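Researcher: I'm preparing a figure for a lab meeting and need a structural model of a single chain. I don't have an experimental structure, so a prediction will have to do for now. The sequence is pasted below. Please return the structure as tokens so I can convert it later.
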Amino acid sequence: MENKIFSQNFLSLNCDYAAHNWKISCTFAPPMSNIKRYPTALTIAGSDSGGCAGIQADLKTFSAIGVFGTSAITSVTAQNTQEVRAIETLTPSIVQQQMEAVLDDMTVDAVKTGMLPSPEIIETIAATIDRYRLKNVIVDPVMVATSGARLTETSIGKAFREELYRRLTLITPNIPEAEALSGISISSKDDFQAAAEVLLQQGCSAVLIKGGHLPSTHAVDILFRQNEAPLTFSAPHTDSINLHGTGCTFSSAIAAYLALGQDLESAIRAAKIFITSAIQHGNDIVTGRGYGPVNHFFDPQRLTGKQITKITKEI
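Model: Understood. Here is the structure written out token by token.
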């Protein structure tokens, strides 16, 4: 039987509890002039039990910038600041169900992917991008942890090329990742162009190669796009051991600023400032005995709603 347990002009909640099978249907209909929602981002990545990288770093970044964060976990890792002790990859089915649970209910303004441990999970994500027509997709091709542990299958590059390149807005490899994906050895900024051209030819619309691994007084990242001049984003290098999760944080910050409505170039520029400040503000903090995290909350922004015209969701 069906029992309407709560009803007002802005909410109708029905519960069907026949045979102890609960089914809840909620329809929200406040006056249209009062409807607001949070800018929202979805991270699809692995969990870091130490809290420095992965899903944990992504959600901290979203929150610090003023974006509501949602998540789909691809893998559970047992790790800390020193090592990755164990990895348990989730099934494509549960990854898909996590994404669908979010996307069937909420409007997502940007997507960030991190640790995608298997080709099957990548195929599932690609199909979900198409089904929901997701925009502002930032792919951080995480392959190796800061501690040096490999986080993905060795065949993952092929899945990236075939499933994600043509669907993404931006890919953000560091130098080892760019080398693995392009087959180009990178020893200087001059090699960035050759590696980026390979990825662009394979289908990427934009490639941001991060130069933090090069010995230099500045951390230099270069954006490459089809038929456009490269753009350089530079910041003074901070000598710090607390760099665990910098790649996750940077790519999540780009996604967050896109969710707030910025264009790609502006989002990268703002994210570069964010990650540089996060590193600087966490430089003198000791967390664990190894590579510690950056300080995501050096200047947290208020989460505020933006006006929308319609909302009707069922769960």
